[in-house]
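Q: Hi! First time doing this. I have a protein sequence and I read that you can turn it into a structure. Is that right? Here it is:
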Amino acid sequence: MQDPESPRRYRFGAFEADASTGELRRQGIRLRLNAQPFQVLCLLLDRPGELLTRDEIAHQLWPDGVNVDADHGVNSAVNRIREALNDSASSPRFIETLARRGYRFVAPVERLGENSSNPDPSPAPDKQNISPSPASADSTPQSTPTENTHHILATPEELPKISHPVAQNLFLLFQVMYLAFYIGALANLAEIEDLITPLSRPTLIFTTLIVTAAALIPVRAFLFCAVLFRAPRLREKYLRVWPFLLPFDVLWSLSPFLLLHHINFGLALACTALLAWSPFVQRSLILMGAGAPTSPRHSERSEA
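A: Yes, that's right. Below is the predicted 3D structure, encoded as structure tokens:
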């Protein structure tokens, strides 16, 4: 048992929890977590790798035997923690559910302040010397893309909470839109060739259009199916691929200019400006839950 006089501060992955102030932070940014879920998180962090039963959690939350639905209250608290940590019951990086028994914190936990008088370099091995469990190994690729672009791109904590069907359907619509661009361009090559002939290096432009359209059709079909059928670890894979897709998406944001036989220049420019934003929207939709295997709430209800 930890000395009650010692500072109860924990670091796990990109997160830090301070029990004395009741604050949970990710890379210095404070996350919203109510008192009871934070109390449950601290209980789990006190005993990493150990089973914490539902009865133990309920006793800590309601020590006076208050008449509450303990199972529902515990499930709700764990759900709130998972939402704050961007965790999932189906593929946990931090909190693992042991069906009908309780929960276990599976990621490495570093207690801050305990060895402040000893300059032992061992606290730093959060990334090097700790041999991660399968769950903690999963956490590294998922957090890395967001951490590397933290100052430029939105993090999951900065995005609004929306339902999974909304995020998924919007993402699927974007894939259908791109497929329509590619197939439409390949179906009207003669008209496009006539349009780009007056430009400088028309052969290069024409070849680039054909090659990228043909190559990106299977990519969009794969993303469509992966999100529709909720492929495992889709979020991590998409965040790795996204930087490579970005230049192609920006290139194809110019596709409205291929319709200059039918629309005017101003409308094509306005559509291009909107399409240049679309790769960032798709990334945000993935972070907001598009293609997620299942929601934490659904998993908890099925296990309760």
